Amino acid sequence: MGAPLRKLSGDPDCKNGTCPTLWGTYDGEDYVVQGYVINDPERLAQLDLPEGETAVMVPAAVLEEYFRAHR
Fold it and tell me: Among 1, 19, 40, 67, fewest CB within 10 Å belongs to which?
């Protein structure tokens, strides 16, 4: 099992608690981003992801909230 995660930032417009979120490990070694699955083949082709990797879309507000709090 990996290191426990803590919530760092979430979508401020979230109504149900399961919206895009930025998580981090308590040791500060890693981040996890929860977001929307990218299904657009053109976008996926631009990313050229290797096997075993994926990408998600995250509202800018999620990251902006985190960086604003850490300035």
Answer: 1
Q: How far is CA 13 from CA 24, 56, 59, 66, in A?
A: 21, 18, 10, 15
Residues 6 or more apart from 9 whose CB is under 8 A from it?
A: 21, 22, 62, 63, 65, 66, 69
Its pTM stands at 0.77
Q: What angle do CA 20, 22, 61 make, to 5 degrees?
A: 65
